[in-house]
Design brief:
- The chain has 11 helices and 9 strands.
- Helix 7 links the parallel strand 5 and strand 6 (about 145-150).
- Helix content is about 45%, strand content about 20%.
- Helix 1 packs parallel to helix 3 (about 40-45) and helix 6 crosses helix 10 (about 210-225).
- The mean pLDDT is about 85.
- The chain is an alpha/beta fold.
- It has helices spanning about 10-15, 20-30, 40-45, 65-70, 80-85, 105-110, 130-145, 155-165, 180-185, 210-225, 240-250, and strands at about 1-5, 35, 55-60, 90-100, 120-130, 145-150, 165-170, 190-195, 200-205.
C-alpha cells in the first residue's frame, strides 16, 4: 500500500513528459492499493498514471493523537505563547513555510488593523525567504502582538493550537493542509484562503485580499468575546479510516488474522 501526500504532487505530475511518466506508472502498477490524501491527487493518479479508481482511496493525512481526540491539551505551550495569551483577547495561529506564498504578510497586516487585542503566533517550518523574513520582522514590530517561532515538535504545536482561538491558513496555493484538519478536529475555528478546495467547516476569504481576511478575523474575534468558540462539526477521524482500509485489504487477500 502506498500513500501519496503533497500539495504540489498533482501539479508536478501534470508537467511531466510521457517518457518520465512511464517509470511512475510501472511502480504504481505494482501496488495493491494507493491512498491519496486529496481529490486532485486521486484524479491525476487515475487520468495520467493509469491507476484504476477501485485501487484508490481518498483519506486525509491526519491521525490525531489520543489527547486531541479527547479534547485534552498534551502539554503547556512555549512560554512566549503563554505570555502572548495573557496580553490579547483573541490569539491566532498560522504555520508553514515562511515564503511569499504563505500569506503570512497579509495575515499580519489584517491583524494589525484590528489593534493589539488580536495576537498572532507564526510557526515557521522548512524553507524561508530572507526578504520576506525581514518584512515580517518589520511588521511584527508594528503589530507588537505577534511572535514568530521556529518549528515546534508535534506535541508543542498541539499545545499551541489549544492555546489559540483560531487557526489561519492564508496561503496563495496549498495542498490538503494537515494543520487545517488538525485544527478542525480539535474544534478550533479555521480561517482559510479560497486558493484551493477546503474541508467543510472552514471560514473562507478571498486569496490575497487583506480586507476580506480582516473581516473573517473580526468575526472570530467577536465570537471569542461572546464566548462562542470552535465548531460544532463532528470531524471524522481519518486514522480509523486507514485501519478499516487495511483490515479490508487483508480480508481480500484471504488473511485470517486481522
Amino acid at each position: 500500500v502506498l500513500t501519496i501526500h503533497g500539495g504540489s504532487f498533482a501539479g508536478r505530475i501534470k508537467k511531466l513528459p510521457p517518457q518520465s511518466l512511464r517509470p511512475i506508472r510501472h511502480v504504481l502498477s505494482k501496488m495493491q492499493h494507493i491512498v491519496a490524501v486529496s481529490e486532485p491527487i486521486a484524479d491525476v493518479l487515475h487520468r495520467m498514471c493509469g491507476v484504476a479508481p477501485g485501487k484508490i482511496s481518498i483519506i486525509p493525512a491526519l491521525i490525531p493523537p489520543a489527547t486531541v481526540s479527547a479534547g485534552i491539551a498534551p502539554l503547556d505551550p512555549p512560554s512566549c505563547v503563554t505570555a502572548l495569551r495573557r496580553r490579547v483577547r483573541c490569539m491566532l495561529l498560522t504555520s508553514g513555510y515562511l515564503e511569499r506564498h504563505s500569506g503570512v504578510e497579509a495575515l499580519l497586516r489584517a491583524a494589525s488593523a484590528l489593534g493589539e487585542s488580536v495576537g498572532v503566533v507564526v510557526v515557521g517550518y522548512g524553507s524561508r525567504d530572507p526578504v520576506l523574513m525581514q518584512e515580517l520582522e518589520d511588521l511584527s514590530a508594528e503589530v507588537k502582538s505577534c511572535i514568530i517561532v521556529d518549528g515546534l515538535e508535534p506535541r508543542a504545536f498541539q499545545a499551541t493550537l489549544f492555546a489559540c482561538d483560531a487557526y489561519v491558513r492564508p496561503t496563495a496555493w496549498d495542498g490538503d493542509s494537515v494543520a487545517v484538519r488538525e485544527a478542525l478536529f480539535a474544534r478550533k475555528p479555521v480561517i482559510a484562503s479560497d486558493a484551493v478546495p477546503r474541508p467543510v467547516g472552514c471560514r473562507l476569504f478571498r486569496t490575497g485580499d487583506v480586507s476580506d481576511l480582516e473581516r473573517a478575523i473580526r468575526e472570530v474575534a467577536v465570537n471569542t468575546r461572546a464566548g462562542i468558540l470552535g465548531t460544532e462539526l463532528l470531524i471524522e477521524n481519518p486514522g480509523l479510516q486507514v485501519i478499516d482500509l487495511y483490515k479490508q485489504l487483508l480480508v481480500n487477500r484471504g488473511t485470517r488474522r486481522v
